[in-house]
C-alpha cells in the first residue's frame, strides 16, 4: 500500500503519528509519503494546493489527513477554501462518510452505548460548497449577495447508490434528510432519486425527514437512524451534532471517498487542529485511529480493520479515569491489537 | 386590540383556544376575527392565501396562529409554500423571534433550569426561503437543480439591528451563526453587517460561530448563548435543536415580526399540527400561550405579558406527573394569573 500522509497543523501531527503507528502494527510494509500541506507551508511558501500536489497525491492508494488550520496565523476560510475543499473537489471525494457510534465505555448525556450506531453519507462535491455565488455593490447599503446550491442527478445518484449499498450491508434502513418543503428544486431531485434508486434495493426501508426534524430525532431518538444520506451542508451540520450526542467528537472518524476508485480516498478525524492544546500530546488520537480503520476497510483490508476496531473498543471499555497522553493512547491501542 | 386568529389544522385549533382564553383573562375586550386558513379550507375551496386574505389580516394589530398542515390530506410542501411562507413574505415578517428557555419544572437531559435562556433572531424573508432556484432536464440523468440563497444588506441589517436591540435589553451578548468559511458571499455580508452595526452597541459583546460548531455548543454549553442572530435556514435548524435541548418543543414559542410596524406581526407555537393526536385535547397549549406572551409584549402590554409568563412559570414549577388535558392546562394557567 502506498499511503500519503498529511499530518497538517496543531494536534493533526500528533494524532496522525498514532494512526500511522497502529497501521504499521497491523499491516507491515506500508510505503508512506509525507506531505507538509497546511498553515505552516502556506505561511512559508504561499502555496495552498498546487497542481503538482494533486498529481503527487494521485500516485497513492489512500490519504491519511490529521487536521488543517491555525486561526491564529491564517485567516479563517483561507485554508478551508484553498486547501481542504479543493482536495475534496480535485480528488472527486463525493462520498463523505461519517459513522456515528456510541462505543462501550463512552458516555453520552442522551443515550446508552449500543443505542447510537448510524452512518451519515454526506455528498461531498456539490450543494452550497461549489463556490457558486456572488455579490454586487459590496459594502454599500445596496449590497446583494447570493450563494447557489448546485445539485445534479449524476452527483446525487452516485452518492445515493453508495448509501443504499451501505444500508443493505447494515440494518437495511436509509433516511434521506433534506428540506423538500422549502427547497423544491434541489429537494425534489434528491427525493426522486432516492425513490428511483430504492427500486434496486427492495430490502432497504426508506424514510425521510426534514433537516429541522432531524435535529430533534438526533437528540431524542438517535437509534431510529441506520444510514442517513444528505447533501453537503446538511451533512456538515448533522455530523457535528451526531458527534456531540455521541459524547464528543473524540471518536468521530470520516472518509472522503471517490467511490469510483479513480482517485485516492482520504481519511481524517472530524475534529480540527485545536491550536489551544497543540504541542502538548494532550489530544485523543482515537478518531484518527478510527479513520485509519475506515481506510483499511476501504482498501479491502477487512480483517485488519476489524482487528483495529476491536482494539479501540477494548481500549475504550477498559480505560480508567486517568488522563493519558496521545502516544500512551496509541500504545494502549497497539497493545490491545 | 384587533386580533386575527388563525387556529389552523389539527391541534392548532385546540391550543389556540387556550391561548385566546388566557389573552381574554388578562386583557378584556380584545376584538377577534377568526380566519379558517389551512388544510380544510384548501380542500374545500382550493384557496391557500388570497390577496383578500392578506388585506383582511392587515386590518388587525396582530395575528395568533395555531398550526398549519395535514400531511394525510394535503401533500407536504403545498401549505408551507402556499400559505405559511407567503404569509411571512406578504406581511414582511423579517424578524423570526424564537426564545429558548428551560423553565423551572421542565426537564432536559442536558441542562438544569436557568442554564438555558437565549433568543434566536432568525431572518424570515431572505436566504434559501425565497423560492429562488430552478431545474433543467428534470427526471433525466442530466437533471441540474439549483437553490439560491438571496441576501441583501437591507434585509440583513434590519434583522441584525433588531438582534442588537434585544441583546442590549438582555445579557449584552450577540452571537452570529453562519458558515462564513464556505459561504463567502452571503457569510461576508452577514459578518460585515454585524461588525458595522456593533459600533452602535459598544456595550454588546459580539461572538461568531459556524453552524456546525453551533450544534456542538447547543448540546454541550447552551448557556454560552444570549442572542443568536442568523439566516433563515440556519435559524430553522438551530431553533428545532434548541427546542430539543430545552426538553421538548412543548414550550417553544415564536413571533414572526415586522419590526417596522407596517404589517401585523404573527405569533405561533413552533410545534406543528400533530394530526396523530388531534381532536383529543391531548396537546400541550403552553407554547401557544407563551406565543401570546410574545404578542402582548410586542404590542406594548408588558405588564400583561409578565403576568402570563409568571403564571406559566408557576404552573410549570408546580405541575405534577398527571397528564392534563389541553383545556385543563389552559384553566390552570388562567387560575395562576
Ligand atoms: C472546514 C470546513 C470547510 C469543513 C466543512 O464544512 O465541510 C468541516 O466543517 C468538515 O465538516 O469537514
Ligand atoms: C413549515 C416550514 C416551512 C417552517 C420553516 O422551515 O420555516 C417551519 O419549519 C418553521 O420553522 O416555522
From TrEMBL, chains A, B:
Q: What class of enzyme is it?
A: oxidoreductase
Under Pfam families, the record lists:
Iso_dh
Q: Which reaction does it catalyse?
A: (2R,3S)-3-isopropylmalate + NAD(+) = 4-methyl-2-oxopentanoate + CO2 + NADH
Q: Name one GO cellular component term.
A: cytoplasm
User: Where does this protein hold substrate?
Assistant: 88, 98, 122, 212
Q: Where is this site: Important for catalysis?
A: 129, 179
- Please state the Enzyme Commission number of this protein: 1.1.1.85
Q: Which PANTHER family match?
A: D-MALATE DEHYDROGENASE [DECARBOXYLATING]
List the protein's name: 3-isopropylmalate dehydrogenase
Which species expresses this protein natively? Dietzia timorensis
Amino acid at each position: 500500500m502506498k499511503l500519503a500522509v498529511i499530518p497538517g497543523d496543531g494536534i493533526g501531527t500528533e494524532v496522525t503519528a498514532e494512526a500511522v503507528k497502529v497501521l504499521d502494527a497491523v499491516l507491515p510494509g506500508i510505503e508512506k509519503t509525507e506531505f507538509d500541506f497546511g498553515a505552516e507551508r502556506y505561511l512559508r511558501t504561499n502555496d495552498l494546493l498546487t497542481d503538482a500536489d494533486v498529481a503527487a497525491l494521485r500516485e497513492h492508494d489512500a490519504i491519511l489527513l490529521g487536521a488543517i488550520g491555525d486561526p491564529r496565523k491564517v485567516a479563517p476560510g483561507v485554508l478551508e477554501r484553498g486547501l481542504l475543499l479543493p482536495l475534496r473537489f480535485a480528488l472527486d471525494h463525493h462520498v463523505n462518510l461519517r459513522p456515528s457510534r456510541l462505543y462501550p465505555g463512552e458516555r453520552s448525556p442522551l443515550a446508552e452505548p449500543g443505542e447510537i450506531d448510524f452512518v451519515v453519507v454526506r455528498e461531498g462535491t456539490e450543494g452550497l460548497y461549489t463556490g457558486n455565488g456572488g455579490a454586487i455593490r459590496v459594502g454599500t447599503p445596496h449590497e446583494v449577495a447570493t450563494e447557489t446550491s448546485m445539485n445534479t442527478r449524476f452527483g446525487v445518484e452516485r452518492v445515493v447508490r453508495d448509501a443504499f449499498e451501505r444500508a443493505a450491508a447494515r440494518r437495511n434502513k436509509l433516511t434521506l434528510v433534506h428540506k423538500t418543503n422549502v427547497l423544491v428544486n434541489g429537494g425534489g431531485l434528491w427525493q426522486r432519486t432516492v425513490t428511483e434508486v430504492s427500486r434496486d434495493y427492495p430490502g432497504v426501508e426508506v424514510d425521510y425527514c426534514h433537516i429541522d426534524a432531524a435535529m430533534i430525532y438526533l437528540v431524542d431518538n438517535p437509534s431510529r437512524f441506520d444510514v442517513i444520506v444528505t447533501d453537503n451542508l446538511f451533512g456538515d451540520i448533522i455530523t457535528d451534532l451526531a458527534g456531540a450526542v455521541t459524547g464528543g467528537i473524540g471518536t468521530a472518524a470520516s472518509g472522503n471517498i471517490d467511490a469510483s476508485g479513480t482517485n485516492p480516498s482520504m481519511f481524517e478525524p472530524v475534529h480540527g487542529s485545536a491550536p489551544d492544546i497543540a504541542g502538548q500530546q494532550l489530544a485523543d488520537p482515537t478518531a484518527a485511529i478510527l479513520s485509519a480503520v475506515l481506510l483499511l476497510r476501504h482498501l479491502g483490508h477487512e480483517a485488519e480493520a476489524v482487528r483495529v476496531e476491536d482494539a479501540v473498543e477494548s481500549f475504550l471499555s477498559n480505560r480508567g479515569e486517568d488522563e493519558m497522553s496521545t502516544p500512551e493512547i496509541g500504545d494502549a491501542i497497539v497493545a490491545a491489537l
